[in-house]
Amino acid sequence: MQNNKYYLYARKSTDVEDKQVLSIEAQLVELREYAKRENLYIAAEFIEKKSAKTTGRPVFGKLLAEIEKDGGNILAWHPDRLARNSVDGGQIVYLLDSGKLGTLKFPSFWFENTSQGKFMLSIAFGQSKYYVDNLSENTKRGLRQKVRRGERPGLAPVGYINDVRTKTVVVDNRQSPLVAEAFELYAKGDQRLEDIAAFLASRGILTKSGKQFPKDKIKRILTNPFYYGHFKYAGEIHEGKHAPIISKKLFDEVQATLAKRGRPQKGATAPQIFCGLLKCATCKLSVTAEKKIKHQKNGNIHEYVYYRCTRKHKTIRCTEPAVTEPDLVAQLADILHSYAMPQAWATTLGKMLDEDEKKANQTSGLFVASAQTRLASLQGKLQRLLDSYLDQDIDQNTYRTRQGELMSEKKSLEEQIGKLTLASKSWVEPMRQWLKQAVSLCEIAKSGEPSAIKEAFLKMDGLNLFLKSKKAQPTAAPNAALPPENIWVLLRKTKEKIARMGDNSAKSCNLVGIEGLEPSRQDGHAPQTCVYTNSTISPEIERSAFWRGIAS
Ligand SMILES: [Zn+2]
């Protein structure tokens, strides 16, 4: 489209990044002179006072609509006047591609409507974008520096004013004594937040729209450390450079009053701690918490938390009784303790695990090395085969058959190498984690900390808890696929067995003939020595199979 019309576009915003840019008047002067010099016909001038960081500039929109309709060319000071975001930049390039926009002229930027020119243009748009992104980073950095200097960015709180000239926050001489009085008033303890709002309103401290402050605004004022000389920024407390208007002591008194007057948050999370952890043994539904308040004759009030079946089963009328929280905590702690692994066992097992890991690595290392040698020789064979084929020593059929065989072998070897390199990692780490976890149960049980107890149970795979006749009962999940049996159940059995064998063996921590838990399989009869301390241990290969079983 041959169109000699030019649209002049000038833009400057109040954005910080536009500070260095020519004023709109200066842009107009320059552009008009440029048009005269280059003999360009200006059909219209578009002037905008908005940032180009985001889309949605009305004048720019009109300019594009005009070009879309009638075609034309654009004259602007620099590409960054046109676009500082990828959408607007994309629109310009699109109009160029579609031919509606003939060309662009900039006194401060070279452009030609060729693929190279468009490339340069999109880089210029992109650089503007980078500049904008970079700038908002710089602005943030500027704010952080301000914070470090002890200046709180943003609007000054009630009782202070922003001094535009010095760019600092200064005490508002009229308001600040009133704000301090409000603190004094609230500290007495007989005032509500609404009363404080009314007090401030009566002295002319109101919202921008001239109304009394809402309750939550008063609370924000009363909890703002700014008034005693600190300030909060990005979640942290900083020392401010501004003058405090109340003492820290008064502030603390106000906080105490707030805590006292504020309604006690009635166990918002605490009672629910074990919700969903247990299931009712009768109807298999989740056990939930219920709070009961008992008023005694002497006026004392007691709160109890009970756990009971949700009793929402469609056909079963559940009669399982509820259990109190302290009772349940004690029971769960006991159960947890019964699964705890004695440290001495863990140490022994840990050493064995280290040994097995080393051996497994050696074995797999040996295999991997030999596999790699074979791989190299296969590679050589393949090469020679190809050579003989190319030299026409063998026919195509022979070549293809033999080549297929060698390639197949090569693939199998590569796969085995891959598997072996991963194999030991796949069971050693989980096993170590399990040992750690099993030992930690003891401390958790002793702490009696409900949240820790709950978390510990949630981490014990394959173990379900049921509530029957006010008793929590652990059960292995029915389809737990852990061989040879649920490892937690096994560990507990082992401990019971050792306990039965008397104090001596329990103290010495000899894992004598423990079915299942000892890595080497004993065949039926228990040997009289600890399987871990004597040397008659089954081949490691069997033991690592055992580890793998646990870790799986
Ligand atoms: Zn039930």
Indicate the topology.
Blueprint: E1 5-11, H1 24-38, E2 41-48, H2 58-70, E3 72-76, H3 79-82, H4 86-98, E4 101-105, H5 115-148, E5 160-163, E6 168-171, H6 175-187, H7 193-202, H8 215-222, E7 230-233, E8 236-239, H9 248-261, E9 278-280, E10 287-295, E11 301-309, E12 323-324, H10 325-339, H11 343-390, H12 396-447, H13 450-459, E13 463-468, E14 471-476, H14 487-500, H15 503-508, H16 540-551
Parallel strand pairs: 1-2, 1-3, 3-4, 9-13
Antiparallel strand pairs: 5-6, 7-8, 10-11, 11-12, 13-14
Helix pairs in contact: 4-5, 6-7, 6-9, 7-8, 10-12, 10-13, 11-12, 11-16, 12-16
Bound molecules: zinc ion.
Describe this structure in words.
The chain is α/β, with parallel strands linked by helices. The protein is built from 16 helices and 14 strands. Strands 2-1-3-4 form a four-stranded parallel sheet, with helices on both faces. The protein is flat, with a radius of gyration of 40 Å. The protein starts with a strand and ends with a helix. 23% of the residues are buried. Bound molecules: zinc ion.
Number of strands: 14
Structural class designation: alpha/beta
- Percent helix, as a range, is 40-55%
Biggest sheet: strands, sense, closure?
Answer: 4 strands, parallel
Count the helices. How many?
16
The set of bound ligands, ions and cofactors reads: zinc ion
- Spans of at least 5 consecutive residues with low confidence: 264-271, 480-484, 503-516, 518-542
Overall average pLDDT:
79
Q: What's the alpha carbon Rg, rounded to whole Å?
A: 40 Å
End-to-end separation: 72 Å
Describe the global form: flat
What count of domains describes the coordinates?
A: 4
